[in-house]
Design a protein that fits this description.
By secondary structure, the chain is α+β, with helices and mostly antiparallel strands. 26% of the residues lie in helices and 18% in strands. It contains 6 helices and 9 strands. The protein has helices spanning 5-15, 29-36, 42-50, 82-86, 149-157, 182-190; strands at 17-18, 54-56, 60-62, 78-79, 106-112, 117-121, 132-136, 141-145, 178-181. Strands 1, 2, 3, 4, 5, 6, 7, 8 and 9 form a 9-stranded mixed beta sheet that branches.
């Protein structure tokens, strides 16, 4: 697995710009460990500190972690639901991953507007070594990427993945990708404005 997390985050900071007043979230990571029973990868923590929870170009959403068990919900980092774990159609893996991974070991950190799911495979005791797994709604299967979240996102923003890992390819044409914090997006829509225009 690639281990160039600081360089990947530096690349993301160069490419991705915040378009709202909020950029970054302050998280009590010791509280997060109590909720999830594990620490999180350093590149994810760096991304949340720099950008926070929100979306890239209305296409790729990144979740923040819950800091109390009461906050666990669809828009925080979470495990797959009981329904997903029981669905045989969800337990489909690309040929290189078949028989190697379990749905129970996945931790969702994001998703796409095309209903893809972005996860870590959390079997390694070192979160820095968690690879990314993507469930593509278009292909109806999981694919595993031997890199961390930041490197995965950087290659997505640079259009370097072959084949393309998510169901919608509209991000491939974006030259100057933008990030919008979820609080700013919500406030704009509540005020009757489209923050992406």
């Amino acid at each position: 697995m690639s281990d160039d997390q600081p360089a990947a985050m530096a690349g993301i900071r160069e490419l991705l710009s915040c378009i709202g007043p909020t950029c970054g979230d302050t998280i009590d990571w010791s509280a997060v460990v109590k909720v999830y029973g594990t620490s999180f990868p350093a590149d994810y923590r760096a991304f949340i500190a720099a950008f926070g929870g929100g979306t890239i170009e209305q296409m790729v959403g990144i979740c923040i972690p819950a800091v109390t068990s009461d906050e666990l919900s669809w828009n925080t980092v979470s495990r797959l639901s009981e329904e997903a774990l029981a669905d045989e159609m969800v337990d489909q893996w690309a040929p290189t991953g078949r028989g190697r991974h379990r749905l129970e070991d996945l931790l969702i950190f994001g998703g796409t507007a095309a209903a893809d799911t972005l996860c870590w495979i959390t079997t390694d005791t070192d979160p820095g070594r968690w690879p990314v797994a993507v469930y593509s709604r278009m292909n109806h299967e999981w694919s595993v990427y031997p890199c961390g979240m930041a490197e995965f996102l950087l290659k997505l923003l640079r259009n370097e993945w072959r084949p393309w890992p998510i169901s919608d390819d509209s991000l491939q044409d974006v030259v100057n990708p933008r990030f919008l914090h979820e609080n700013d997006e919500k406030a704009s829509y509540e005020a009757g404005a489209d923050p992406w225009e």
